[in-house]
Amino acid sequence: MQASRIIASSLALSIATLAGASRPVVIGSCPPPECIPQTADDQIIQQTCRVEVVFVLDTTGSMGGLIEGAKQKIWSIATTIAQAQPSPEIRMGLIGYRDRGDDYITRRTALTEDLDAIYSDLMTFEARGGGDAPESVNQALFEAIERFDWTEGDDTLRIVYLVGDAPPKMEYQDDVKYQASCKLAREKGILINTIQCGSMSATRQFWQEIAQNAGGAYAAIPQDGGVRQIATPYDDQINQLSTELNNLMIDYGDRRTRTAQTVKRAQAAEIADAAPTEANADRAAYLGTASGKVTLYGEQELVVDVTDGKVKVEEIPEDHLPESLRGKSKEEIKTIIAENKAKRDAINARMAELVEQRRAFLREASDSTDDGFDAQVRASIRAQAARIGLLIPEND
To answer: Which of 17, 120, 283, 314 is the most buried (most CB within 10 A)?
Structure first.
């Protein structure tokens, strides 16, 4: 796996300047550890990098191919981001948009680290409505900039992907026009990348202008999204191990927390049942990354929290334990946790091997001329991540 080019000269210069400081230095962007100067007098405080992405998807009748492609590829896109060094926190959000007079104008899913929530909402999107070419692009774009809780700071990469085949409807008098939204995006440090499905010339002009005005990139893809899903000999084994891992979770906490975790486990099971085999394997690969831990474990998971030292078994009230552990001694609970962790470690080790073999298979089978939705997202986000010092491998 080849790494992308290391750091722009300006970043290298800024870090070199920091090397002379004798006070603690907070690094706003996130250079690779080997590029951070270390001296006896320097105390380097590495801030966590974040990548926040909101997909703004046209969900009108002509967009069925793209929507299905997004359902298939959202996990592999997240995995690509998660391969960055240093490992970032990842939050994604979602807007589906149509036009006035349709079932809805926009539907939003808030920015979250729990990508199961994003995927569950994405699975409900269907291509319907529309009819006349222009759509409510203006409203969707404004909401993407103003209705999400974007993280501030130079260590966060904030990106909107506007994906559609029709231009904005400009005659609505009470709309915030795209020019104003682009200005707001620049002020907030949000990049807007535009991906045009199909070849409508009017759309191309708007999409190029939006990307240019908001510091993003423009790309054109086939009307159907151009997504290729490749089955591998490893998918079924990976998915079986993922199911086994999910069944080992031990949730604890107060009633609200346990209820939320129960809902999350049910959501994960529904995804496993509904998603294509290849998408499930992509999901398992993402959950195996450092960035995927929130999606995998949720709010409170006993084995992880005890292992990480976040909680001691002796400190957990009896009524915060799951039913299966109530009435057991503290030593019995510790033994159960240790045995559970050993099973997880074995599963994770085997899954890591299979995921790497699958990745190599996909690299070999991939077409270098791929111009689909997911390929364009990877290309742009790889280049833009370098702005905050994140290095994403080229062929992943």
So the answer is: 283
Place domain 50-228+369-388 in its CATH homologous superfamily. Answer: von Willebrand factor, type A domain (3.40.50.410)
Q: Judge whether 138 and 179 are in contact, CB under 8 Å.
A: no
Mean pLDDT of 337-363: 97
| Structural domain spans, the chain | 50-228+369-388, 235-363
pLDDT digits (tens, 9 = 90+) for 299-320: 999 999 999 999 999 999 999 9
Q: Report residue 384 as tokens.
A: 């833009």
3-state secondary structure the chain: CCCCCCCCHHHHHHHHHHCCCCCCEEECCCCCHHHCCCCCCCCEEECCCEEEEEEEEECCHHHHHHHHHHHHHHHHHHHHHHCCECCCEEEEEEEEECCCCCCCCEEEEEEECCHHHHHHHHHCCCCCCCCCCCECHHHHHHHHHHCCCCCCCCCEEEEEEEEECCCECCCCCCCCCHHHHHHHHHHHCEEEEEEEECCCHHHHHHHHHHHHHCCCCEEEECCCCCCCCCCCCCHHHHHHHHHHHHCCCCECCCHHHHHHHHHHHHHHHHHHHHCCHHHHHHHHHHHCCHHHHHHHHCCCEHHHHHHCCCCCHHHCCHHHCCHHHCCCCHHHHHHHHHHHHHHHHHHHHHHHHHHHHHHHHHHHHCCCCCCCHHHHHHHHHHHHHHHHCCECCCCC
Strands 218-221 and 190-197: parallel
For residue 39, what are its two tokens? 């001296």
Q: Cis peptide leading into 86, omega within 30 of 0?
A: yes
Mean pLDDT, rounded, of the chain: 88
Residue 173 burial (CB count, 10 A): 4
Looking at the chain, how many residues does it have? Answer: 396
Residue closest to 54 by CA, chosen among 109, 98, 104, 97: 109
* Alpha-carbon dihedral sign for residues 66, 231, 277, 258: negative
pTM, two decimals, is: 0.86
